[in-house]
Every structure is written in structure tokens, then in C-alpha cells.
Amino acid sequence: MEANMKRVDSYANEHGISWRPHIKTHKSIEIAKRQIANGACGITVAKVSEAEVMANGGINNILIAYPLATHKKLERVAALLSKATIILTIDSVEQATHVQQFFQHIGQDIEVWIKVDSGLKRCGVDPGEPTLQLAQHVSENCPSLRLKGLYTHAGHSYAASSYEQVVAIGRYEGECIVESAQLCENHGIPIEVRSVGSTPTFEVAGKVPGITEVRPGNAVFYDAIQVGLGVATYSQCALRLMGTVVSNRPGERLVLDTGSKSLSLDQGAHGNATVKGYGHVVDHPEIVIQRLSEEHGIATIDGNTTLGLLDRVQIIPNHACTVMNLFDQVYVVRDGQVIETWKVDARGNVQ
Model confidence at 197, in pLDDT bands (50, 70, 90)? Predict the structure, then answer.
């Protein structure tokens, strides 16, 4: 984990940009603080409840990378402004109007960034002219909103069939932000922050001249999906589950105590098909966790295995982010020894 943090920080320093990791991967105040100590300029969250946990834990610069508009959630955001810089994200005129009306009513200003769709086809305004039009609306009609940045997330990189395709997606991710920002500035709207995300693409998109920030989340741990995409190796994967063989049919199957409530049923977002089974069993390529029930991981055996009843294995999850959210705490291991236990502070914070 420490090496993974240093990898991102070294990359950011080399290219003269900032990094703002997405903490939905680890949901831990301790890890967030370590990322900031290693050079991160702040953090990214997906939910207001995550922002609340992190702000109360002492993190003072937080991007909520999710479009908010309801009165209740904006009230909760406003309550955090005395503790931290909170940045909201906008992707439509209608949403901007709701946010403006709320903050105008309470007499506060707030920093906002515009979300640009770089190809994921989820949230976000199209790059180019549509981005300019939204920026003009915010600048001209929303005096309580301080427009400071554009950002995007190329999550469709997870569906890439090759690393070359990841590179192409990442290059466009950076270019569409820079070009949209330049268009805004040509019309008198300064764009200070040009931010890109996605662990598979950040090392490509961050090289595009004009990008100022990257926001990789999964890069703190990596996982089997990142290995499948060619972004990381198994040795770089920091999050692992310890599983025990609880039932054994020699030559046929064995059962681990790691079911869907610990490994999750995730085999990859946005069409990813690079993983095999439901987690990589370290040092045992003959074992494939073929199916999961709630408490059971049923594995097939290809040939012979040395594993038997009560043997323990390490499992690298397919998707670290979903697995971390299933546990109350993690054990911190150095040189094979447990040295600390850390709480997963924002576990279940999805409101």
C-alpha cells in the first residue's frame, strides 16, 4: 500500500500535477491521512455521508464527485463548510439552479466543478460547446457558485479489451478536459482545475498538457481487475482476504469461508471480462473460486492441489472497493506480522 501511494505521488511530482484520491476504495480515515501525508492535495468522495466521516476525521479538502441537488443533502453539505473546503459538482443547468437557490437562500458561497462525460455515458455534460454553455450559465446566473474546475471519470476504461485501448481512452479523457477548459477560457471563464480520474487511465490522462490533477481511487490497493487490464501485477495488490478451507472433496472441489458477503459478486464494472472466478487465490493457480453463496466460496480444482481442510489462503479480490465496504476493520501487515488494526470508518456510508 505504501509503495502504491508513492507510485501515484511520484507520478504527480514528475508531471507537475496534484493528486486527489477517491476514498470510496478504502473508506478509512487513517489511509486518507496517509495519502495526504504522502502528497495528496485532498480527497474525493462519492457520498455526503463519506464527506461527513472524513471531515469529522480531520480531512479538510473534499470533492464530492456526485451530482447533488436535494435540499436535505445540501443542508448536510452546508453544515460541513466550517470544517473543510467542500467542492460540489454540476452537470446540468437544472441542477445548478437548485444548488444556487439553496446557497443563495442561506447566504453562503460554494466552490463547484463541472462534470464532463468523456465516454462513460453516465453523469456529465458533453465536452466542448455543451460544457461551455453550462459554464456560462453558472458564471452568469449562479452568483453563489464559484466555478473553479472541470473534471471527468473514464470509467469505461474498465471494459477495455487491451491495454492499448486503455491508453486511447485515457488520452481522450485528458484531451477532452483540456480542450473544454480552453474553450471556456477563450470566452472569459477561467478554469483553474482540470481533473481526470480512473485508476486504469490516470497515468495516461495525467500526461496530457494542461491537466492539473488526477484522482485514482483503486490505485491505493489495486485488485484482480487492474491486473487483468495490465495496469498492475498481483504483487502490487495490497488488499487481501484470508480464507480457510472449511470443506474438501479431494480432486473435485473445496469450499472456503469467503462467500458473497466477503468477496462480493463483482466480476468487473462496465463490461469488464478480464477476471476468472471471484478472486485470485495467491500461489494456487489450480484453484478457481467458481461460485459464491452468502458464506461459501466454492472452488474447482484443476489437477492436483496441496490444499486440505483448515489450510489458509490469501485471496486478492476482483474489486477491492466493493470488498472493503463489507468489513468493519482491516489488519495491517508488514513483513508477515500484523502490526495494527484500522477501522473502515465510512463502511456503509452510502447516503
Answer: confident
How far lies 40's CA from each of 5, 16, 33, in Å? 9, 13, 9
User: For cell 485508476, what's the residue?
Assistant: 199
Contact partners, residue 284, CB within 8 Å, separation at least 6: 305, 307, 313
pLDDT tens for each residue of 96-144: 999 999 999 999 999 999 999 999 999 999 999 999 999 999 999 999 9
Per-domain boundaries in the chain: 2-217, 240-316
Beta strands 337-343 and 329-334, pairing class: antiparallel
pLDDT of residue 271: 61
Identify the CATH class of 2-217: alpha beta
Query: In the block, which residue shows the cell 477491492?
Result: 320
Residues comprising the chain, all counted: 351
Q: CB of 219 within 8 A of CB of 11?
A: no
